[in-house]
Amino acid sequence: MTAEGLAGAYPGRVIDLILERASRAGRSQADSPRKLALVIEGGGMRGVVSAGSLLALDLLGLRDVFDEIYATSAGGVNAAYFLSGQGKLGMTIYFDDIANRRFINPWRVFKIIDVDYAYDRVVSQLKPLDDAAIRASRVRYLLSVTDARSGLNELHDVRARAEPVPLLLKASSALPVLYNRRIALDGREYVDGGLSDPLPIARAIENGCTDILVLASSRCDAPMARPALWERGIFYLRMGRRYPALLRAFASMHEALNRSRRLATGDERVDGVNIALIAPCDEDATIDATAIERARLVRSAHRMATRTFEIFARERAILDELFEAYQTRYPTGRMPGKPDATELLFSYGTLQLEPVQLATFGRTLEGTADELPGFAQSMMEIDDPDVVATSGKTHHPFATFTGRDTDAIPGTAYRITAEELRNADTYEVVAYKRVAVVLRSGVRAWVYVDARYAPPS
Length: 457
Description:
alpha/beta; nine-stranded mixed sheet; three-stranded antiparallel sheet; 36% helix
């Protein structure tokens, strides 16, 4: 590691090229003999580390200087929000939407990590990714996935694929064992790209990249050990019996990763290729792939974002301001809201819409994704013209109590004042009844449900 916090093979050359391109009018690289790549590691919740570095690059205005981006798993999500110009929004997913038991639950043995929730709910609905902006980018975006039948790695050119970007990201993040499902793309099944190539530096070199910036989410100065016998045994029971090639890929995944780490640190060099590595080091706290402690996630992202800013010798005041907002978003464990916001309201319907919030509360609300267990959802026709005019919808969702653990409705929990809760009572039609419930996260909240089939008091 250099004094500037960099490692690699001639890392200064990579940084100089990035800065030179950033200063060039129009940023056209068509006549350049050098090909600049960005490689981003995933690793579940460890992805918050590379997300911090990416946020810094975004704030520094370096989004369009790269020719190609190579990313895997959570690194793929980070890359997508970076390319779309939504870096700040993407960062908040780690802090506000998935640092909870809704996403990671060790007691939910058949889906410890709920990848469906992350991509079908958060990335597609709560914090929608700008698919069109990614496809319009000049940067070629290559996403690492593993073919479930062959166990081999593939790089999918996201801009050239017909599938929605969140579905492609889901395939790259479909963790064996922890999620244990395959994602079908064009008739073929795929799982997490990290299984076959967690850090695709060698692939970038094969594609002619001469200068590579690597954003790692884990230490690269020590080799990864081969998966233990018990780990291979669990993999076999959960997925390897049906997909033996995946078991072989899992048993040898350390080999691909260790070569990538040697390339990243400069311990192994390729003639004519310059590599700069930004990665966690000795003084950094270790982030586990299943970590959900919000404060620790914020600190890790802030540290890596700061390190990245300093490498490019820029003023970091804007960065510190932003992370101060992240750190204080929920002071003393409270959810966002006004100082006198003492009520928690869960919405699965139109109260999540900005026009409805402005009309009902006079402001937009910040909330946290959650789930209402023991209820099923249907639609109800609304005959109140004022409510229809406010929501713009003639039919609203309706929650009916079933008491079944298998039933649940996703939505958002908002911290509001007692007066705002009365305003919500006025907005909802008489067919709804406000009741107190316990959400999936364990917090108590108010929710409006079908008055005919409300839970017993």
